């Protein structure tokens, strides 16, 4: 197996415990820049990232938009709303893909990997009440909340409640390579 454990790609993980330590401001600026330089269809750069610190006035309303199963994210020093809107898309007549969503996904991966580079952990989430997030952060109606991400320094598993700890203890798995990647003709 070709796997380089010192690579950012393999160090990245979605765990749920965070240290009570603010994100280094210089690290944050470097992360912002890496997000900004993500690729996008027609260079539309449709992403909008709203970073919310734990001590921000809007943080409480933000975590109230998360279901019970994602409440652990309220302990992260930062929560991020990844937003995009259809109007910023360029939809090709020969290809109906919604590239604004795809592009926001790419930019989110930039965030996830940039976080690892800074010794941080970023955990993406689809579990949130989108209208509540929009209300909490005053996100305009024409934007969608495509993802929520927690960001901070990884903490000890012992600080999690039992249910959340079990999730973090479960092994990270992937489909076998031949189920997702082939060479030449379609072989799945
Ligand atoms: C779009 C998206 C939505 C996710 N939603 C949640 C979520 O709501 N709650 C959660 O705990 N993890 C969530 N995850 C994390 C995944 O469970 C995790 O990425 C997956 O199990 C693979 O583990 P890894 O990131 O450690 O490699 C989400 C990940 C992605 C990319």
What order do the helices and strands follow? HHEHEHEHEHH
Number of helices, counting only DSSP H or I runs of 4 residues or more = 7
User: How far is the first residue's CA from the last residue's CA?
Assistant: 21 Å
CATH architecture: 3-Layer(aba) Sandwich
Helix content: 25-40%
CATH topology: NADH Oxidase
Bound molecules: flavin mononucleotide
Mean pLDDT: 96
Number of strands: 4
Spans of at least 5 consecutive residues whose pLDDT stays below 50 are none
Structural class: alpha+beta
The name of the CATH superfamily reads NADH Oxidase
Computed CA radius of gyration, to the nearest angstrom? 18 Å
Task: Give the overall silhouette.
Answer: globular
Summarize the main sheet. Answer: 4 strands, antiparallel
Strand content: 5-15%
How would you describe what is shown here?
The protein has 188 residues and is of the alpha+beta class. It has one domain: NADH Oxidase, CATH 3.40.109.10. It contains 7 helices and 4 strands. The chain has helices at residues 8-11, 25-36, 59-63, 99-117, 130-137, 162-169, 177-180, and strands at residues 48-53, 78-84, 121-125, 144-152. Strands 1-2-4-3 form a 4-stranded antiparallel beta sheet, with helices on both faces. The longest helix is centred in the middle third of the chain and has 19 residues, at 99-117. The radius of gyration is 18 Å and the shape is globular. Flavin mononucleotide binds next to strand 3. Flavin mononucleotide is lined by residues 13-14, 70, 124-127, 147, 172.
């Amino acid at each position: 197996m070709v796997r380089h454990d010192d690579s950012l790609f393999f160090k990245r993980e979605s765990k749920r415990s965070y240290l009570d330590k603010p994100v280094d401001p210089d690290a944050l600026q470097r992360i912002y820049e890496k997000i900004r330089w993500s690729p996008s269809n027609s260079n539309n750069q449709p992403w909008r990232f709203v970073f919310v610190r734990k001590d921000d006035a809007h943080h409480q309303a933000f975590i109230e938009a998360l279901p019970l199963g994602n409440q652990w994210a309220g302990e992260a020093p930062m929560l991020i709303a990844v937003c995009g809107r259809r109007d910023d898309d360029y939809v090709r007549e020969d290809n109906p893909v919604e590239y604004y969503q795809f592009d926001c996904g790419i930019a989110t991966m930039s965030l996830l990997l940039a976080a690892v580079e800074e010794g941080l952990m970023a955990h993406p989430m689809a579990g949130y009440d989108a209208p509540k997030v929009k209300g909490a952060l005053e996100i305009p109606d024409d934007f969608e909340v495509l993802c929520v991400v927690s960001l901070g320094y990884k903490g000890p598993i012992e600080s999690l409640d039992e249910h959340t700890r079990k999730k973090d203890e479960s092994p990270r798995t992937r489909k076998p390579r031949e189920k997702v990647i082939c060479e030449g003709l379609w072989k799945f």
